[in-house]
Specification:
Length: 282
């Protein structure tokens, strides 16, 4: 679909939602899309890193972004999560225009990003790392921290929530271990768990299978799939190790030279001649 046509269609749908009295129609539209990227363009000097990129992430699915090195994948997620500002285009998260927002505002909205190299608090335990992401604890207030009754109930609630997530991620037996004792794959699960602790509705992950053994990579994706099913979290994942993620992904976008060149089910996209040519450098 051309960029101008996509823009017209997006604005037409938004007009219908805003001017339709039926709440049923509004819910049908709102539940369909978690994230919509509309005609993103990003340049670095004379280099066009993103060239009119359109993607539509469905709520509750695990969507993957693939493509050879330099195709624009990381630039795209940097623009979505506020680390870069697009030169042109818009991004909507749950129907709200978040284009150009700072990373902390995007995070507060429930769109949380993790990075290729995990960045836990190395001097804390696994449980303590989880608790750092919990929001709204009155004990963080300088005044209320002095009065145990003001924060103890919220502290108990946060701890119970952390243990539930650690159990889901199969890390509950390591709750009191220093986070540095975890493997690389387990650290990536801790980062996903911290995202949930923060109230994430959608998690953007950059190569969660990078640098870990295939068996452990399958365990990581199995746990992420459990999070998707049980917690109804939406995922957008950038990944290169395609053979590992085949059983877990719901939908795929393929990029090359800053453009979306194919989309659909993973097997369909991998058999697309345009995708094959992009990986072979033709």
């Amino acid at each position: 679909m051309g960029c101008r046509r996509f823009v017209r269609l997006s604005y037409r749908l938004r007009y219908m939602v805003l001017n339709t009295p039926s709440p049923i129609f509004f819910c049908a539209i709102a539940l369909e899309n978690m994230l919509v990227v509309n005609c993103f363009r990003k340049t670095f000097g004379g280099l066009v890193a993103l060239d009119d990129v359109n993607i539509d992430i469905k709520k509750g699915l695990m969507t993957m972004l693939i493509g050879p090195n330099g195709s624009g994948k990381t630039t795209l997620i940097n623009c979505i999560t506020g680390f870069y500002k697009p030169a042109r285009g818009r991004v909507w998260f749950e129907g709200k225009d978040i284009t150009g927002w700072s990373p902390y505002k995007v995070y507060n909205e429930g769109l949380v990003r993790t990075f290729q190299i995990p960045q836990p608090f190395q001097n804390l335990t696994v449980l303590e790392n989880m608790l750092t992401a919990y929001r709204g604890n009155p004990g963080e207030s300088f005044i209320k921290a002095l009065y145990r009754k003001a924060w103890i109930s919220e502290e108990v609630k946060a701890t119970e929530m952390a243990f539930e997530i650690l159990e889901l991620l199969d890390l509950h037996h390591m709750w009191d271990s220093p986070v540095t004792h975890l493997s690389g794959g387990q650290m990536k699960l801790v980062e996903a768990g911290r995202a949930i602790m923060s109230g994430a509705k959608m998690i953007v992950m950059d190569e969660p299978a990078s640098g870990i053994y295939p068996k452990l990579a399958h365990e990581v994706f199995s746990q992420l799939t459990e999070m998707k099913k049980k917690l109804r979290v939406t995922f957008l994942i950038v990944e290169h190790r395609l053979e590992l993620v085949l059983p877990y992904v719901d939908y795929v976008y393929a990029m090359s030279t800053g453009k979306i060149i194919s989309e659909g089910k993973l097997k369909e996209v991998l058999s697309d001649p345009a995708v094959i040519d992009s990986y072979l450098g033709r």
